[in-house]
Every structure is written in structure tokens, then in C-alpha cells.
UniProtKB/TrEMBL annotation:
The chain crosses the membrane at residues 285-305, 311-338, 359-379, 385-411, 423-446. SUPFAM superfamilies: CBS-domain pair, MgtE membrane domain-like, MgtE N-terminal domain-like. Belongs to the SLC41A transporter family. The keyword Lipid biosynthesis does not apply. Acts as a magnesium transporter. It comes from Cyclonatronum proteinivorum. It is found in: Cell membrane; Membrane. This is Magnesium transporter MgtE. Pfam families: CBS, MgtE, MgtE_N. PANTHER family: MAGNESIUM TRANSPORTER MGTE (PTHR43773:SF1). Residues 137-200, 201-257 form the CBS domain.
Amino acid sequence: MKNIYLERLDTMLREGIDNEEELHRICEMLHPAVLGQRLSELDPEDAKAILDRFMPENQALVLSHFRKEKAGEIAELYMDEMLADIIELMPHDDRVDLIKQIPQERREKLLMKVEQPDRDDIMRLSMYEEETAGSVMTSEFVTLRDTMTVEEALVSIRKVAKDRETIYNAYVVDGYNRLTGIVTLRELLLYAGGTKISDIMNTDVVFARDDEDQEVVANRLSEYDLIAMPVLDEQNKIMGIVTFDDVMDVRKEEATEDFHKMGSVGLMNISLSDAPIKLLIYKRLPWLLVLVFMNIFSGAGIAFFEDTIEAVVALVFFLPLLIDSGGNAGAQASTLMVRALATGEVKIRDWFRLFSKEIFVAVIIGIIMGVAVSLIGFFRAGPEVAVVVSLTMICCVTVGSLLGMSLPFLLQKFNFDPATASAPLITSIADIAGVLMYFSIATWYLSI
């Protein structure tokens, strides 16, 4: 469905803004996420020129939906006083992301202009390591005391609701801020006003530790179908919450990271459209150079079997077909295993069971592909070459598949990211193995 307001905004940005009143009306009709995404596509100067037309609270809301790196570029254009006001109005987790994009020297000066409570909150959230639960949590949540009544709890929630990211879940704490239970807004509305919170709260709370990996936390939140999950420190004090929208951002980041690794591309903390040519070359070239030198072994294998090739030149015709099939089978198996490990569907302990299953799957696939390619071999070079090609196809597909499914397990066993078992890496290893297997089988079967 077309968004007529977004289309009109695009027209105004393209042809020039000549009606300030219409611009304000259009921006009010657009969701801040839509507006932030669209303004992210502009040059930082142009995007800020639009933002400057809004009130500070609206600038804060829209800026929180910009890509992190783009928000940092726009922040550089603000005066410290104005930027400090905007930061105070932003969602707590988003403003920490923005602060981290600002150079250290300016960051310290800027924080001195932020109100003390907000500055303390930013400093606390900024201390957590990247990709941990603490780094993605927000401190905008509702706490209650178990000694409260339902009526007192509702009064307390009304006082702070405007400044909280979510009020559906209220977290019950003791005098030391340690989490003791959770109660939902629905439960508060269903029980009588005089009911004690301690009588209706759920003490079996699903939570995360502040130093846990963000992907593990995202999987847990999805597994339990929660809209938010409390984050605790080692003393069980509640430090923040991770919400569903935070999880979606984490999933997007982790998926992007895995795709980059699987394509043998270095991690980029910037969007592809904004990445300069130099950065793209720097991120892609190293792995390609490594794979080039790995493929030298394939060349060495071919050179070793020069006598076999000279005796039956027709073998060369089938070489790309066979080694590519092994690489493709390995890439398929690797992709399935990397994804299964990332989502927690399988664990390291499942390797032997899956390896046994993969043997049967790979052999059956290899036999079917071997029969198919043997027909080509028969008409192209005769029955003897057809047998060699068929046997090699079975071996290439089987070895490639077992390699592809095992390497992610091996990497995880040694605490490396399984996504590093990228398709190009698997393909290169399978190519080397394929060359050796093909000409070894040919030399043996043809008695060369």
C-alpha cells in the first residue's frame, strides 16, 4: 500500500521545500520510524536541516530511528547545548548508541551539559561490553515493592508511565533492588485494589544476566514469547530490561554479521550504501587473497597427475563439474549447520548423531548425481570414464557434505563463530579434495 505522505515528502525533498506548514503536517502524519529511515538516506546536512524544523522532543524521537552511524554523523553538526537537550529526550538505549558514535573528546564535554541523572544513566549503560545484554538493554522500566497494594501500584505506574518504554510488565523488587517477582498490568486491573502485590506476583521470572551474549538473550526472549525480559547483575539486582524491539535489532545485526562471515567479508559497521570504495576493498580483499593461495594446492594436485591427464585428456572435461558439485554440497550443509547452531536447534553434543545422518543423506544424493553424470560420461568419453566420473561424484558430494556440516561444530568447539565456516572456504577445501580424489580414482581405475 502506497503512503501518500511519504510520496509527498519525497517530492518536496526532490523539488525543494516551499511550504513549511505542509512539511510539518506531513511529518506529523508519518511514523517516526518511517521518517527516520527516509531522512537517513539524505546527506547529514540535509537531514539536519529537516530535523531543525521540529521541536527537540520530536527530533529526539526521529533521531532514535536513524541508523547508528548516520545518527553519529548528524550529531556532529549540532551545537553541544542543543544536542545535550535532544539526548536527554531520547529513549535510554538509543541515546547510549548515539553517544558511542561521538568522538571521545567531544563526548566528555557533551556529557557535562547533560542533566546529572541522565548522565549517570548514560555512563552506567555505556560501561557494558558490546554485544552483551547490558549493551542493548534500556533503563526505562517500572518497579514496584511487594509490600504495595494493587491500588498503590497503579498509582505508582501512572506517575511514571509517560517516561517508561513499556508498562505492561512491572518488576517487583526488595529494598536492595533485587528482583523478587513480576506482575502484569492485566493482573493489576483484574484484582481488587486492596490485594497485596506479593500475593499475585509471579516469582518464576525468566531473566538474563547483564554480561550474557545478546544473541543468547534474543533467542531466550523469543523462545518464551516475552515482550520484555529483566536483566540482572550477579547480585540479582535489576539493571534494565531487554524489549522485543531490541531483540529485533539484535537479530538483524547478528544475521548481517553471519552473512558477511559466510561470504568471507569482514564485518562492516556501516551500511553498504554508505560504505566507501576503500572500505569495501579492505573488507573483501583479505579473504579472497587467502582463498587464492589455498587454491594453489588444487593446481599442485593437477600438476601431480599430469601423466593421468595426458593419458585420458577427456578427464579434464568433467573436472569443473565434479569439484563444483562437492563445493556446492558442502556449502549447503554448512549453511544448514550454521543456522541451526545460531538458533540453538542443535548443540555440539549432537554432532555424532547429525554426522551419521549426513552420511546417509550425502551418499544417497551422491549416488543419484553420480548416475546422472555417468550418462554424460558414457556418451562423452566411454564407459570407463563414466565409471570414474560416477565414483568421483559420490565421493565429492559425500566428503563435501561431511566437511560442510562438521566444520561449524569444530569452530564452535574452539570458541570461534561457526559462521566463519563460509561458503567460499568450504568450497576451496572441497575443490582441493575433489581434485585429489578425482585423479586418484582415475589413476587407479584406468590403471595409468
